[in-house]
Amino acid sequence: MIVVHSFFKLDAVDFQQAPTRLGTLSRPDCRPLNQFRSQVLRFDLVDVSLWRGACSRVHGGFLMGTLKRFSVILAILGIVLLTASDSFAITKTKRKATTPTRTVTRSEAQEAEARLKEMGYPAGKVDGVVDGTTRSGLILFQKWEGRKITGRLTRDDLEAIMTATAPAPKDTGYKHVEVDVDRQVLLLVNDEGAITRMLPVSTGSNKQYREKRMSGLAYTPRGRFRIYAKLSGWRKSPLGLLYYPNYFSDGLAIHGNPEVPHSPQSHGCIRIPMSAAAAVSRVLPVGSIVLIYDQQGWVSAKDWAEADKLKRQEASIR
């Protein structure tokens, strides 16, 4: 038995016209159409042909048209239900087929440490134990490669490490420092163009600040600079303490700080880890060249390096 409720809105015009056009039908099963507004239409599919013959007085075949429309509705509902069940079955199959990611084994972690060390990243002892030094190397690798910075060795990171190439400086042929603002890393480069050390940094946040009666834009300038002054130990500045500062532009310095977040957060200085500040200061005498750049471009300082070389040669002759 099929039940058709009035909310299907089968034919509002026919409902309104039926009482005046049709009147009362002769067969008991064919009740007056003016009762259909509040009652449910019931059809027995087996007796559709008999029912149609008995109700032949219905003008225009209203009820048969209704039955056809309802059949279409049933067909559409069937297709929707079949599609939904198939989609559910496919999703369920995919979920069952998905296997959990295997954790990195100690031998694999040892291979990752060896590869990090080979590429110039700090890795500590190559023993398969992911300690603080290994995590520092992982963070630098993730920064350089533009990966999510976690300091953890996942299987995806392992695969990336094993297929990656070693970092390379923008400029070569002379000793200098490079600061990649996009990657938030610092490179110490020797005369041969090799990277001797990599460090995480935090540069200017590019936000306006108002602190300690001072205000301005927290910006780290891009371009080529020289270290023009430096101090050992702590230095008190208007905006805070600096550890082993190496000044390169208008009071801005490369200096140690207890907090070196992964993103730009400073007032404009270049923060480096406290543990590396003294060692970096020793290899950056006054006059050292500093290149600071981002994806917008960079400026070489080879002409500066050549000029410095000529001065040294002239000084040796005298």
What is the structural class?
alpha+beta
Coarse morphology? elongated
Low-confidence spans: pLDDT under 50, at least 5 residues? 1-59
pLDDT average, as an integer? 81
Short description:
This protein has helices spanning 12-21, 48-54, 62-97, 106-118, 132-145, 155-163, 274-282, 302-317, and strands spanning 2-4, 41-43, 176-180, 185-189, 195-200, 208-211, 214-217, 223-226, 229-230, 234-237, 240-249, 252-257, 270-273, 289-293.
Description:
The protein is α+β, with helices and mostly antiparallel strands. Helix content is 36%, strand content 20%. The chain has 8 helices and 14 strands. The chain has helices at 12-21, 48-54, 62-97, 106-118, 132-145, 155-163, 274-282, 302-317; strands at 2-4, 41-43, 176-180, 185-189, 195-200, 208-211, 214-217, 223-226, 229-230, 234-237, 240-249, 252-257, 270-273, 289-293. A 5-stranded mixed sheet has the order 5-4-3-14-8. Strands 9, 10, 11, 12 and 13 form a 5-stranded mixed sheet that branches. A hairpin with a 2-residue loop joins strand 11 (240-249) and strand 12. The longest helix has 36 residues, at 62-97.
Give me the secondary-structure topology:
Blueprint: E1 2-4, H1 12-21, E2 41-43, H2 48-54, H3 62-97, H4 106-118, H5 132-145, H6 155-163, E3 176-180, E4 185-189, E5 195-200, E6 208-211, E7 214-217, E8 223-226, E9 229-230, E10 234-237, E11 240-249, E12 252-257, E13 270-273, H7 274-282, E14 289-293, H8 302-317
Parallel strand pairs: 3-14, 12-13
Antiparallel strand pairs: 1-2, 3-4, 4-5, 6-7, 8-14, 9-11, 10-11, 11-12
